[in-house]
Design a protein that fits this description.
By secondary structure, the protein is of the alpha/beta class. 27% of the residues lie in helices and 38% in strands. The chain is built from five helices and eleven strands; from the N terminus they run βββαβαββββαβββαα. It starts with a strand and ends with a helix.
Length: 201
């Protein structure tokens, strides 16, 4: 299964006929994907399952058709078991950014965390998951794949938001503050936190 968010609404590519989230299910061979994206984007569809008899083939074709961009990001905890968030575009988010040149995606993830938050001594502990979402770049709809990593830093200095990237605040949050932040964030961020908490249990 692959899940792509369009304005925080999911398009779910699946090889199963089960409908766990009560969205409509259509066969991918019977639809025009650009029309489905438009309907999800505008809210006409709150979410959709696209059934494929050959999921890997259809998913690869879908990714190729939208020139997928790779990015790396981090869920960073500190010695107080607090989690690092950024505040941008009136939402709490996690630091992330696109791969530059021949950069390894792990290098990207660490660089973006350090640049966006003014933090250092960041190390990767484990891979968490990939998320996918659409965004506009130079008026073109683009698909982004983010590699998310669980990270740790013992940094205790001042956090400095990268204002040039539109980041207004950077903050390590305790469990109560994280719950509040999740009420004003993106679906893919909630997916990262859900994965992290499942691995803890």
């Amino acid at each position: 299964m692959y899940k792509v968010f369009v304005n925080d609404r999911p398009i779910i590519f699946t090889s199963s006929l089960k409908n766990e989230e009560n969205y409509s299910l259509l066969k991918i061979k019977d639809i025009v994907i650009s029309n489905i994206i438009k309907q999800v984007k505008t809210g006409k569809l709150k979410g959709i399952y696209l059934y494929s008899e050959n999921l890997e083939r259809d998913w690869e074709q879908f990714c190729d058709s939208y020139n997928m961009i790779n990015a790396g990001g981090g869920l960073v905890y500190n010695d107080n078991n607090e989690l690092l968030f950024i505040y941008r575009a009136r939402k709490w988010d996690l630091p992330k950014g696109r791969v530059h040149g021949n950069e390894d995606v792990k290098e990207t993830a660490i660089r973006e965390v350090e640049e966006e938050c003014g933090i250092s001594d960041v190390e990767i502990k484990k891979f968490l998951l990939n998320t996918y979402h659409f965004y506009y770049h130079e008026r073109k709809l683009r698909l982004k794949k983010i590699y998310w990593y669980l990270m740790y830093s013992n940094y205790s200095g001042k956090l400095t938001p990268l204002f040039e990237e539109g980041i207004k605040k950077v903050k390590f949050k305790n469990s109560t503050q994280v719950k509040a932040a999740l009420q004003n964030t993106y679906a893919n961020v909630r997916s990262v936190l859900d994965k992290h908490y499942k691995l803890q249990n």
